[in-house]
Each structure stands twice: as C-alpha cells, then as structure tokens.
Amino acid sequence: MTFPDSTPDQVNTALNEAHIAFLSYKNLSGKQKAKFLRAIAYEIEALEQNLIQVAMRETNLPEARIINERGRTTGHCRMFADLVEEGSCVDARIDTAQPNRSPLPKPDLRKMSVPIGAIAVFGAANFPLAYSTAGGDTASALAAGCPVIVKAHPAHAETSELVAQAIKKAIEKTGMPTTVFQHLHGSNFEVGKALVNHPFTKGVGFTGSLAGGKALYDIAQQRAEPIPVFAEMSSINPVILLPKTLEQQAVKSAEMLAASITQGVGQFCTNPGLIIAIEGKGLTDFSQSLSAKISSTPAGIMLHQGIADNYLKRLTQSVSQKGISIEGQSTSAVEKNQGLPTVASVTAIEFLKNPLLSEEVFGPFSLIVKCKDFTELHTVVNHLHGQLTISIFGSEAEIALHSALLNIITEKAGRLIINGVPTGVEVCSSMNHGGPYPATTDSRFTAVGTDAIKRFVRPVSYQNFPASLLPEELKDGNPLRIWRLVNNEWSKS
Predict the structure, then answer these.
(1) What is the CA radius of gyration of the chain?
(2) 145 closest CA partner among 440, 493, 480, 455
(3) Which of 211, 232, 308, 359 could form a disulfide with 302 if both were Cys (CB 3.0 to 4.6 A apart)?
(4) Can you state the angle between helices 157-174 and 48-59, rounded to 10 degrees?
(5) H or E element, residue 392
(6) What is the mean pLDDT of the chain?
(7) Among 47, 110, 115, which residue's Cα sits nearest to residue 454?
C-alpha cells in the first residue's frame, strides 16, 4: 500500500486546524487529557493482530519485538495519563503577597507550566510504534496540552496509518477537538521542511540521523520566530573496560557486549559502537571471545533496504581506514537487506587521528580502541563527542581508583552505566534519554520518561491576578489533587 506525499496546501491546512484545536485543547483539565491518552492506548490494542502483521511486513521485525513495542507505546500513553491526572507536571508555585513587607511590598506571584502550541513529530525508521505515530513524542506533547501533527516514516507508512486511525477513534470517543492530532505522509524532505517552517508550528520531535535532525534544526533556527527542535540523532555509546576487572571477567563481558551489539541487528540508538580498553591479557582474551561470538552470529534482516545499504556503505568505509583490523565478522552468507555483524579494532593513536572513526555506524558493528595506558585512555575519552550513554565495566574499588573518568564522562553523556550494556531503555521518571550534541540538539531534556513532557511546555507567571482569573491549578484551596510549592513549602491540595 502506498500513500501520496502531502501537498503544501495540506500541510498549511493541518497547521491552521491544529492552531484552532490548540486554543481549546490547551485549557482542558489533566483528567480530560488523561481520559484521551488512555483511550488512545485502548484503541491501539484494539487493532490486535492486524497491526502486528502489518508492522512485521513493513519492517522485517519479528512478532515478539512488535508486540513488545506495542506494549511500550500504550505504556507511554498510560504513563502520561497518570502524570497529567496527578497534576505535578504543571510545576505549580505560589508566593502570596506581603503588602506590608519593608522596604518594598511583595506582589502575589503564581507560576505554572503551559503548553507551547502545535508540535510536529517525525516518525522514526527503527521504531515503527514506540518512536512514531503514538510514541513518546506524541504522547508527551498531547499530555502537555499541545496538538500534534505526525509525519509518518515512509518505511512503515501503513503501520503509521493504522495507529493514526486508532488515535482518531480515541478523539471521537472522548470528545477531543477533531484536529488535535493529524497525520501526514512524505517520502521527500519538502514535507518536513514545510512542517517546520509553518508559523503555527511551535516545536519539533525527531528521532533519526544526524544529517536529518541537523537539517530540521537549522530550518527552525532560520525562521522569523525560531522554535525548539528536540532531535535525537547520533551516538556510539562508548563502553570503557577497566583492566583489572577485564582480566577477571573477559568472557562474561564479551558475551554481554556481543548480545548488545547484535540485538535487533544493531538498529538501536543505544547500540555499543565503541569499546575502549588498555592492552593486556584481559583485552586479548576479551577480543578473542567477542570475535568468536560475533563470527557465529548470523546476519540479520534490517528494517529496510535503505538502512541495509547505508550500513554496508558505512561499514566498508570504516574498516578500510588506516590501522583498522577486523577482529571478527559473521561467517554467514549475506542476503538482501541483511546486516553483517562485525567487530574491528584500532590503536588509540590511529583513532585519535581519524574523525570518521568517531561517527556512528548504524547496525551490528563495534570498534575496539586499544590504549597503551590510562593516559591514552583518558585522551580517547576526552576526545569523544556527546553521547546518549557511556558505560564503565569495573569493580567498585577499581572505578574508585579512576574517579576522574566519572568526571569526564559526566560531561559527555546523558546516561552513565556501570557494568551494564546501553541497549534497553527503561521507561520511568528517572530515565534520561538525551545527551550533549550530536547525541541530541538539547541536552537539557529527555525523550523518554515522564520528564519528556517538559520539552513542550513553558513557564508563565501570574502577578496580582484576581482569584477568578487564575488557572485552576494556581487558585487557593484548588480542588485538584496536585503538588504545589506554596510559600517555599510543597503541599498537596
């Protein structure tokens, strides 16, 4: 099934209608938005096996993965429903007036977060459900009070269309403004460009390549009114192996990393694409074990031909660089759309000379950087760009001896992991899925977890407002069960 690209007139109409929807949707209560979000989850589940089969056909992903992703998508919706119903996400703060304060009276000031407006969401190639039509960007934007216009990813356009119809059913059943969610198609860049350029677009959610995210960001900054682009783009998720622990756990570490490198044919933004260690027996044993695991892993079918072609291109380019040695590569025959698991190695000196080796190879590939000593290891870590994650494998005692590493990686990544692989992103309030550029365009925010809602709101202060004109969340003795900071003390109404 094919879907024609949306025209400029359709983009314009969608944004005009989204703005009209915003004028009423932004004022709905948390309870009303929660009902809507739960209805979306229900309607997605009601698609049952039809959604599963279509998504499998379009993406080459196995049934178990699609079912898991569907659960994550509906879980996002219900998580944000609980959040807005509870109400603390508006971050209500109240400082009552002190008219007799000396030398100057203090005004009555009340502050809360309000939605910013219509959000353009770009479906992700590697997550047909969880980072696409009803994924985390859409769910958090709707929870914030923002209308959403989704541009479906052309690699799974039919899956996106099915989910869009489910959302529209939820709109009808809960009495939401009919254009609070809209769905567009576009296989060319012009549709996305028109979405970002439209004056009623107030923010962008994007998961994809560095080139794509940077292009959208640049368009947004060149507008008459620049807008925020929350783009997750590129990360090689370095793993640092400390030598004493590596000597004791070389095989175990290799098994963990081999499974992470090849999981989902390496098509995760948290795939461990770089391994940094010091030369010695531990690294030799680790490399041999990792190579054996990678060599015995069959090539897997990738999401679509474009991703497979790009992986082959980037893999070929990377392993042909000066000083690169292939340590292990799958021995299986490669068929159409398949990605060949590969692990290579390079010395720290050659790695530092070649900027290309710091770039993401999206697929089942990882590069081992062999350092002579801790001085070289620190130099390599300092050389890294911004990342979503950085992991350290080591005992508590050994890590304590090299605490400077923790200081360095805190500046480089949004999530720090000890003795664990970066794949597998828990959806909860403590998760941060973001990081310094080029991992994302704004390291202050997360794309996963309840704090993802903060991307689509802004603070507003109300000074000396009569009670009748205040938002309900800021009224004295308001009936909403939300946490509020009242005169420097948190309380729940």
Answers:
(1) 24
(2) 455
(3) 308
(4) 150
(5) strand 387-393
(6) 96
(7) 115
Q: At 16, which helix (H) or strand (E)?
A: helix 8-25
Answer yes or no: are the C-beta atoms of 156 and 1 closer than 8 Å: no
For residue 399, what is the enclosing H or E element?
Answer: helix 396-401
Alpha carbon distance 344, 203 (integer Å): 40
Catalytically active residues are: 232, 269
CA dist., res. 339 & res. 55, Å (int): 20
Residue-level pLDDT at 493: 59
Q: For 427, which DSSP code? A: -
**Closest CA relative to residue 150, chosen from 178, 175, 185:** 185
**Burial environment of residue 397 by CB neighbours within 10 A (0 to 12, 13 to 18, 19 or more):** exposed
Which structure tokens are listed for 444?
């202050």
**What is the longest distance spanned by two Cα atoms in the chain?**
82
The pLDDT tens digits of the residues spanning 283-305 come to 999 999 999 999 999 999 999 99
Smallest CA-to-CA distance from 95 within 394, 487, 493 is with 487
DSSP state, residue 175: T
* CA triple 86-43-7, angle to 5 deg: 105
Residue with tokens 């990605």: 339
Query: 425-448 pLDDT, tens per residue?
Result: 999 999 999 999 999 999 999 999
For residue 313, the SS3 value is helix
In one letter, which amino acid is 176?
M
What DSSP designation does 44 have? H
Cα 288 to Cα 264: distance, rounded to the nearest angstrom? 23
CA dihedral of residues 227, 230, 233, 239 (deg, nearest 10): 140
Parallel, antiparallel, or unpaired for β 489-492 and 342-347? unpaired
Cβ atoms within 10 Å, residue 179: 21
What ranges in 222-373 are assigned the alpha helix state H?
243-248, 250-262, 281-295, 305-319, 348-353
Angle at 389 between CA 386 and CA 392, to 5 degrees: 115
In sequence order, what E strands does 153-307 have? 181-184, 201-207, 229-232, 239-241, 274-278, 300-301
